[in-house]
Amino acid sequence: MTSQTPATPVRDTRQRRAVRELMASTDAFRTAQQVHDDLRAAGESVGLATVYRTLQSLAEAGEVDALRQPEGEMAYRRCSDGHHHHLICRNCGRTVEISATEVERWAERVASQHGFRDAGHELEMFGLCDRCPD
Amino acid sequence: MTSQTPATPVRDTRQRRAVRELMASTDAFRTAQQVHDDLRAAGESVGLATVYRTLQSLAEAGEVDALRQPEGEMAYRRCSDGHHHHLICRNCGRTVEISATEVERWAERVASQHGFRDAGHELEMFGLCDRCPD
DNA sequence: CTGTATGCAAACATTTTGCATAAGC
DNA sequence: GCTTATGCAAAATGTTTGCATACAG
Lengths: 134, 134
Known about the structure:
alpha+beta; 3-stranded mixed β-sheet; 5 strands; globular
């Protein structure tokens, strides 16, 4: 589960570099479309399909975190390694990374108690942060 | 948050009844498309758009639980009241309801530790149940 | 040179919407 | 009868894919 055979060598292209740099430069979750717009605004135009493909491959490589927003679109964010969750302000989008050893253990226990194996979980928290009114 | 002004009275139609009965009859998560197919198979044909509209309204009314599957489609399930989570077999769809007092408390604590208020969370677990091979 | 990555447009899948018609109350 | 609900087809969304071309190695 840690390394997969790189079916393809992954080439170092301008586009891939642009996406990686953009993701490295921010701390927020961005959708493929946002990344596409950001890049175009920065003059580093990259095709939308390429942005999708690149973000997916970065996610598989573990360089970015992928999550599905409540509305259904995928969003990506540069990410520290390892499994963890997020606490996201639903007003301003500010994100706090949470490593939840506690929850991991709980999840594993619950799964096996019910006879489930190979279990994973998805947990995201949404709230209003202390910098946001109402 | 318990009662909302019924903008529209909600009429008792054959279609709505069919959807509600179908949802009442099963214990599994069904997508709108599946419900549509099930109904057609049962001879109680209902337009797909109507199924979507009805499931949404049932979800808003709290009669069914709505969740977004990892693949991105919405799925609905008849549901006991109150907040809880699910452990879902990613092969056969079998679902176990989990009331996670432990997690609720943990979530609340983490949120307030980070200065977040009005926090909610989304947690779903996916695995392989003991009736499913590999 | 060889073969992967890109861009574009078309294909896709899911969900939403406009509008004429059917039907609940 | 007045008005909401339905069905259909079209539109909207977000994402993926086929294919010719560009370009990294």
